[in-house]
Amino acid sequence: MRFDPFTGAEIMRNTKKSNKTNTLLSLTTAALALPGMTPQSAMAQAVTEDTILSYRYSQYAEAEIDGSVDVGAGSRERYDISIHQLRFKTAIAGNADMTVDLQQESMSGASPWYILQDSDGEPVLVMSGATIEEERTDIGANFTSYFDTIVSSTSLGYSTENDYSSFSMSYALSKALNEKNVTLDFSISGSQDFIEPTSTEERPIPIDEEKKTSGSLSFGFSSVIDRTSIVSTAISLTRYDGYLSDPYKRVQVMNLPDSSTGPTGNCPFTLCADRRPDQRTQWDWTIRYRKSLTEYNAALHLDYRYYTNDWEVDSHTVEAAWYQNFAEHWQVAPQVRWYTQTDAAFYQIYFENPRNDGFYSSDYRLSAFDAVSAKIKLSRFFGFGALHVSYETYSSDAGTGRNELSAGSPALVDFTHVTAGIDYKF
Amino acid sequence: MIRIVKLSGVLLLVLMAAACTQVKPWERGELAKQEMAFDVDPMETQIKNHIYFSKEGSSSGSAVTGGGCGCN
User: Fold this and answer.
1) pLDDT digits (tens, 9 = 90+) for A237-264
2) How far is CA A251 from CA A209, A247, A259, A347, A354, in A?
3) d(CA B21, CA B18)
4) pLDDT one-digit tens code per residue, A75-88
5) Beta carbons of A168 and B41 less than 8 Å apart
6) The pLDDT value given to residue A180
7) Which residues from chain B sit within 8 angstroms of residue A225, using beta carbons?
8) Partner B, chain A 308-347, Cβ-Cβ below 8 Å
9) Is A403 part of the contact surface with chain B (CB cutoff 8 Å)?
């Protein structure tokens, strides 16, 4: 006997009424779990029968800079982040429900600042000196209405931290067809972000306040393949406009005119501000496959995502998970993720000559790198809900760049992520 | 981009053909299982996407992934 952790209802099998409802549940969840949507708006299942309160606590810890990397200044220790998540979901009408999310993060540590070329032509990483400490609060609300073959969902969000704030909203619509074997999905979203970086004597910032706007469209399709498998695919287009650079990063550019590299020039002592184009257009395509393996009391998940943007970053993501039920109320889910990306057109660890377009970045997140992560999650289901714990380890390495200065970075990050949580219905 | 459109088109045709297999409501018991959801744990997905967006170069494409520029 098993219980749905989100409704507390005993999961029935082979009854016409419950299976019709639950299959639409699976497909609408699938339909709204689109690349362009967050869980705030992708929570759509059938109208919740119970009020549900969920809490998660996560601890994220980045590994120290490896001993083989030459750190010229600053700390080898990197970021630690503590995260509290709270979710409240309840029915607000006969055919609608509401979900409210609250997230609180506390961040502290040092981060990569720039990379210098030493007298031997080798890279030297410079980290921020003083420990950065920040708090971020994120709140979101989702309203979903359910009709016979249509699900309509609206989400609003607000996020704020010391130097950044963001307003966002989205709308999603799904339509079931073919006796609810197929679902067509559409979503649109947008956000307005404001950045007011913190300038210090150690790290002076070249801007006072900037803003960024984004908009996204997504189209998707989900389908029942047979009695034990379903598939979903979606394509998204996103456009960013405004300030897209990182105000806290610098990049060394050599052979600049002397007027630029003086103490009051644009690039004092050859250290220029991180400067990226003020527009970015990106596409991504995702496909997800779910297979129930009845004889093993398990399910297989396979996901693939392709991403490309006009900064020339392309990436592939492959994720696989195995959900194994055991001892009637337990579930263990090992997962692996493989990721690879190419470098941005204007990325290098440092530049031996200026670029014609004036765009530069040494941010490791724009380098060519590969990453692998492994995760395991354990869940225990009760009549009142469920308890969860998970552990993830992530490791990245240099990939194949357009040249030796764009393949990876001495600042590439490894991290671990531990989460514990509870879902409670009342 | 053209490759993505072509690939999506082929995939849509494949999926539409697959959807022609009619699975009746009373045959969908396996599909209704919790572990068969495309997003088994939305809260976990939310924080996962936020972390990967902050540490990698290909964001989720969503404008609703929560704030923070991923700076620092």
Assistant:
1) 999 999 999 999 999 999 988 777 777 7
2) 21, 11, 17, 10, 11
3) 6
4) 899 989 999 999 99
5) no
6) 87
7) 18-19, 21
8) 308-309, 313, 315, 317, 323, 325, 331, 333, 339, 341, 344
9) no
Of the candidates B33, B39, B40, B17, which has an alpha carbon nearest to the alpha carbon of residue A229?
Answer: B33
The SS3 assignment for A194 reads strand
Q: Please give the model's pTM, rounded to 2 decimal places.
A: 0.86
ipTM over 0.95: no
| Alpha-carbon gap, residue A347 to A357, rounded angstroms | 12
Output DSSP code: residue A291.
E
Strand partners, A84: A57, A104
Assigned token pair, A26: 């699976």
How many angstroms separate the CA atoms of B39 and A35, rounded? 12
Residues of A in contact with B14 (CB under 8 A): none
| Contact indicator for A7, B21 with CB cutoff of 8 Å | no
Please give the average per-residue pLDDT across A35-40, as a whole number: 30
| Coil/strand/helix, residue A130 | coil
Question: Could you report the per-residue pLDDT of A411-425, keeping only the tens digit for each?
Answer: 999 999 999 999 999
CA distance A366 to A139: 29
Residue in chain A lying closest to B11 (CA): A233
Which candidate, A163, A155, A111, A112, places its Cα nearest to that of A136? A163
| A350 Cα to chain B: minimum distance (Å) | 18
Q: What is the DSSP letter of A272?
A: E
How far is Cα A408 from Cα A414, in angstroms, rounded to an integer?
13
A359 burial level (CB within 10 Å; 0-12, 13-18, 19+): middle
